[in-house]
# Entry
Amino acid sequence: MYRLMQVCFSSILFLFIFSCNQQQSVNITHKDTTGIFEISEKIRENPFNASLFAQRAALFWQYNKPDSAINDLVIAIKLDSLNEKYHIQLSDYYIKISKSDQAIKVLENYLLRRPQSPTVLTKIAKYYSYLKDYKKAKEYLDKAFLLDPQYAEAHFVKGMILYETKQLKQARDAFLSVIQYNPDESEAYMMLGLIHLEWKDSLAIQYFQTAARLKEKDPWPYYNMGYFYQETGQYAKAFDVYNYILRKIDRRYADAYFNQGYINMVYLKNYERAMTYYDSVLMLQPERVEAICNKAYCYEMLNDLISARSLYIKAKAIVPNYEIAIEGLNRIDKKLK
# Structure
């Protein structure tokens, strides 16, 4: 049986909510780094000004110079060891280069001087949640709540942990606390929408709509509206939302094309139409193996086995151990014997 590939909200959730990726590489020109040169001159004139080092660190980070950024922040902290903002900035940089132990160490060192910081305690809890050490994360959240029971970010991190561990009702309650204490927190509305989406409860749409109002021109809330309609069999509404993304927000949003292809392929059995959507995906992402394999499956259903086989081979060349491509090839080869 062919295992159909679709884009699922849960598979990309934490890339969206808790993104920890490194900055993209940037080629630095003299014009780009004028700000760095200017701040460096100021540092030469004021070598004990911690804020100047922090400002230059941010510019170094912007231009993909993490070592220089971290070095400047270390200096800033030596000059102003009680500045919470510098410690958080440095810890974020360590997280983004996958040095979570260093990130936690920076914040724990700050707590030795200022233990009454719900912000730092919550940051550490978040970092432990990245590491799936939920017990440790909860310990720090409990300390944060003792200091400030209404701290919205702590409730958000708690909700994310509960969501990740499939405790959806408790997660919902945590995110409701977030919007109680911070009604403009769009990510909490997104998470509430995702929880109700899993329950196939139409309340999800209201939460996604609120998130969309708070984050204009962000395709993510609309994408999840479309996915809700898709999962509940309301295909016309799903198409409307996906097309809205492509017309009004981002015409290069590949997942909107992909899921329209999926609906046509799986539910409507319109394989030729599905392939046009997968072609749009592949124009934007030529090596996206899910789209290649789904297009191959459409050819297979249309009994064009040679074209199907060619695409499965292409997918396997991109990802040699890709099981769906291997299964497709085995199935085609049996039919061609």
